[in-house]
Amino acid sequence: MKNLMFILIIIILIPGMRTAHTQQRPTSPHGKGFTRECSQCHTTARGWQLKDALDFDHGETGFPLNGQHQSVACRNCHTDLIFANIGVMCADCHPDEVHHGELGSDCERCHHPVDWQYSASRTYDHQQTGFPLVGRHALLDCGACHVAQEGDLFSGRSTTCASCHAGDFFAARSPDHVNLHFSTDCESCHSAQHTVWEQARFTHPATFPLVGGHRQTDCGTCHNPQHPLPQAEDCYACHETDFQHAKNPDHLTAGFPTDCTICHNTFDFEEATAFDHTLRTDFPLEGRHRQTGCLECHGDGVFNGKSTECVICHAGAYQQTQNPDHLAAQFPTTCDICHTPTGWEQTTFDHNTYTSYPLVGFHAQADCNQCHTDGVYTGTPTDCAICHETDYQQTEDPNHTDAGFPTECALCHDPYGWEGAVFDHNTRTDFPLVGRHTGVACIQCHADGVYDGKPDDCYSCHAAEYETTRDPDHQAAGFSTRCEFCHSPFGWEEGHFDHNSTDFPLIGRHRNADCGDCHADNIYDGKSTDCYSCHMEDYLNADDPDHVALNYPTDCSLCHTPHGWDDDR
User: Fold this and answer.
1) What is the per-residue pLDDT for 491?
2) What 3-state class would DSSP assign to 235?
3) Residues 11-62: pLDDT tens digits?
């Protein structure tokens, strides 16, 4: 019982003990829950003076002090002693007196604790605004564009160039934008990528592209207040003065058209290379004419109706030429018969067209002077011997003079070469060459130098063959010297004597018999045609039946024929 009373007393006293203990620790002036020791920041001196160096890491609060925050006095941010009564957003301490809330409350999009001005143009992504900063814009301070004006300072600002550069537009004098009625769309000529206004790159309309000298011409040269929009396709509209003052040649006197493009291009007035002589005249420029200056032909100032005859310009060259002398030779003044615009030296006289003596073979390669050594061109004889008399007289193989050859060289020779003589024996003589005669050199038959009146009988050339032949012996057999009876020009071996031309035509087995079978005695002329004269041995040796015992007659033809002994009648 005593123990129970003791426990109850203890329970009643405990709350009072706790209250007494709590009252021993006063509440911190920095707010409920601030548990740091006072000595971390304060000295023990009277007045709770702050230490020169606080023993306190602000980073532990979740808001580290960076940049300029490190040098700011605590009470600049903490305006009362309750440190927790402060936000961590920039706007909590930094009222937006510049942007007036146009850019939102996230100051760190542009600013940094190190310096408000430090990173404004480096951290803010201007690309998000629809107006990226490029070229000269990237180097500008924000305030250069965002100046005080009616309306918002940042949001909703116009992105047109003229909204900022109207002053530049009105002040421009080279060229004068206002008087020339230029568009206020600056980007039609200028680019934000450029760093200066002078780097203008206007894309000229396709109707008049700027090429050649026009590319280097200042805009104001063509576009002046009097003619802000000149007639682009008409050169004369800008170059009238050039036309009227031109003296080389004098455009006005020559009656030139004012269409400058006929002669000139946009690269250089002095070099009038655009005139198409081929297209615009009846005299196309070819060869050296293409390199000739206009005044070399038009030195008289005549351009329209100028004669196209060569001699009009080249009379001097015609009269002074000595190789050959054109005047002495009475050459025609139609220069193009021999010459071309490529050059005087390269003469191309068409002998085949303009004369009755076409040049073929070696003649086509001969120089004019080789035939026309006397300077005579018109009426020159076409007889070969006129030019080749020396060749005729000096020829030794064969000797043309001794042989009495005619001087009509074309009988044997052609213009393609002396050596290849092609005398037509078949048409020019009574002895056509056939067979082996076609492959025989002339000298084999005409070794005696006789050509005209040469005998045409075979024996005249072939007597040696006749006399030395032994199979059969022509002389012993008394063969005729008319070789053609047995032989032809195609070869000696192939004798083809026509036995049917004799009184004993060859038929039956006689046709296959060799000449020597019947003419073994070498008798040809006056040979007996009696069968028995050749077949006596056959008669005497016959035993079935025995011709001798039966006293058969020796007239074999009574029983036999030339087709065979067994074919008895």
Assistant:
1) 85
2) coil
3) 555 554 444 444 445 678 888 888 888 888 888 877 788 888 888 888 888 8
Q: What is the largest CA-CA distance in the chain?
A: 208
CB atoms closer than 10 angstroms to residue 391: 14
Q: Tell me the chain's radius of gyration from C-alpha atoms.
A: 67
What is the number of residues in the chain?
569
H helices of 246-338, where?
Answer: 251-254, 277-280, 294-297, 310-320
pLDDT in tens, 71-118: 888 888 888 888 888 888 888 888 888 777 777 788 887 788 887 765
Q: Which amino acid is at 385?
A: A
The answer to whether the beta carbons of residues 493 and 539 sit under 8 Å apart is no
pLDDT of residue 23: 47
Q: Can you tell me the distance from the alpha carbon of 113 to that of 99, in angstroms, rounded to the nearest whole number?
A: 18
According to DSSP, residue 457 is labeled S
| Amino acid in the structure at residue 260 | C
Which token pair is 103?
Answer: 């850019």
Phi, psi (degrees; rounded to nearest 5) at 331:
-65, 145
Residues 6+ apart with CB under 8 A from 316: none
State the CB neighbour count (10 A cutoff) for residue 125.
Answer: 10
Give the whole-number percent of the chain exceeding pLDDT 70.
Answer: 92
Cα separation, 125 vs 476, whole angstroms = 136
Q: Give the Cβ contact number of residue 219 at 10 Å.
A: 17
Kindly give, in sequence order, each residue whose CB lies less than 8 Å from that of residue 538, ignoring residues fewer than 6 positions away: 565
CA atoms within 13 A on the CB side of 328: 10
DSSP-assigned beta bridge partners for residue 343: 340
pLDDT of residue 12: 53
pLDDT band at 547, cuts 50/70/90? Answer: very high
Residue 413 has a CB neighbour count (10 Å cut-off) of 20
DSSP SS3 for 376 = coil
Could you tell me the residue ranges of all domains in the chain? 309-377
Q: One-letter amino acid identity for 467?
A: E
- Residue 346: C-alpha distances to residues 182, 236, 336, 340, 341 (Å): 62, 43, 11, 7, 9
CB atoms within 10 A of CB 442: 14
- Report the distance separating Cα 533 and Cα 513, nearest Å: 16
Q: How many CB atoms lie within 10 A of CB 68?
A: 13
Residue with tokens 């107006």: 131
Question: What confidence category does residue 6 fall into, taking pLDDT thresholds of 50, 70 and 90?
Answer: low
**Residue 248 φ then ψ, to 5°:** -130, 75
pLDDT at 238: 86
User: 75 burial class (0-12, 13-18, 19+ CB within 10 angstroms)?
Assistant: exposed
Q: Which residues of 157-182 are buried (b: 16+ CB within 10 A; e: fewer)?
A: beeebeebbeeeeeeeeebbbeebeb
Tokens of 231: 């007639």
Judged against a pLDDT cut of 50, whether residue 415 lies above it is answered with yes
DSSP letter at 340 equals B
Partner residues linked to 50 by β-bridges:
42
Query: What does the alpha-carbon distance between residue 331 and residue 509 come to, in Å, rounded to a whole number?
Result: 83
Give the C-alpha separation, 182 to 24, whole Å: 87
Q: Give the separation between CA 454 and CA 267, rounded to whole angstroms.
A: 85
